[in-house]
Each structure stands twice: as structure tokens, then as C-alpha cells.
Amino acid sequence: MNHTYRDILSSELLTRKQSNPRFSLRAFAKQLDLSASHLSSLIIGKRNLTPQQAHKLLNKLELSPADKSLFLSSAFPHILETPTAQERQTQLIADDKFTFLADWYHFAILSLGDISLNKATPAWVSERLGISELQARDALNRLQRLDLISIKSDGSFKQTGNPLTTTDDIPSGAIKAYHRSVIDLAKTKLDTVPVEEREYGAITLAINPAKIGKAKKMIRDFQNQLCEELEVGKKKSVYTLSVQFFPVSETKE
Prior knowledge:
Blueprint: H1 5-19, H2 25-31, H3 36-44, H4 51-60, H5 65-75, H6 85-102, H7 105-112, H8 122-129, H9 133-145, E1 149-151, E2 157-159, H10 172-192, H11 212-230
Helix pairs in contact: 2-3, 6-10, 7-9, 8-9
């Protein structure tokens, strides 16, 4: 568990190493615009952060609002005051917004609200999505706090508002975390879902970079058209469509 900004830096380095065993302290330092020796000294406690350094690191690290607050409070405990009740509530909502997008199953729960005979219980959601009852309970509570679902008198639930969609509402770190969670989920489903119930495809091609904008628009248009087609009629299952389009080579002039 992270208790100080040093723990957070160490944890972020470990996470990157787990994703890429070749990732090093030097590579992490380069991402943070620090020397490797400086970063090492920060992690082991030989050096302290200045306010300017702290804010520079926060701009580069993809932290949740709670971890950002912990990062600053542990670095500068003498200049931070105890938050008021209103500030704590604001912090809770900020954390909710981050976690709402960072974990894939929140959107899945919203879509489950369109399925008839759904139940607003952790057990039912857990069984349908393959997540733990604790995750399901926390997610249901979070969606209620964000006014995105309402519980009906018969014990079912429905979506009551549009999910957060603007960059003002959603931290960029949460957007990246969401895409990572969906990609991880897709890897799991590749081995657990029968081929008759899924479609995976990939192509690699040389392109004219001037047409990237057009390609992105075509992908978004296709996503919208697919939604319009599949959301007609009786809904029984929740699916995710995930599209990635990225360079695998370095562009050279």
C-alpha cells in the first residue's frame, strides 16, 4: 500500500517493470525528465522534493486524485491543512470519476441496466460480469453517487444520465487506464469465450500519415453505426468493441 510519494514512485516503477521486464530506473527517470541518480535518491529518501519538482512529476504521472493528494501531503505535510467536509466530498467525487472510467466494468454495469430482469445486487452483477461481489458492490455504489443509475422499486436498475464524456470530466490518466483494462480483458476473453461468440482481427499496413485523421473518423463512424444496428431489439448480452490503431514503426522523413 502506498503511504508516501516515495512509495508511489517505487510502485509506479514496479508496475512498469511488470509490464516490460526490460524497463529500467533510467527509462523511468527519462520519462519523468529526471536523472537516474536524482530519481533513485528520491525513492530511497536521500533527497526531498521541491514544490516545483512535485508538480512537474504529477503532470507526468498518471495518478488517481487520491494518490495525487497523498503525493503532495506526504511531500509537504507542513503546508497542507486538514480538508473540510466539503473538500472531502469533492475529493470523493473526483476519485469516483477517475475509478468510473479506469475500471471497464462500470460501463458494463450501465449497459446491464438495459437488460430486462436485471438486479441491482452485487451477487447478480458479479455473476453476469465475472467480477467479485466486492467490486460489484463498490461499483454500484459509485454509479449511484455519480447519479448514473437509479434503483427501481422492483429491485432492478437503469441508467439515468450520460456517462462522463468530456476531458474536463475525465482525467487523461483514467482514459489510459480504461484502455489498458479493456485490452487486458480482451486478452482474457480470447481464451475463455467460444469463437462463435467473438470476433478478433488485426491487419498491418504501410500508410500515408496525412490520412490518419480520416482513418480515425472512419473508425468512429463505424463504431456509431454498429451501435445503432446492434442496440435494436431485445437485449440479452453486453459486449465491448475495442479498436486500436497505432504505428509500429518510427516515422522517418
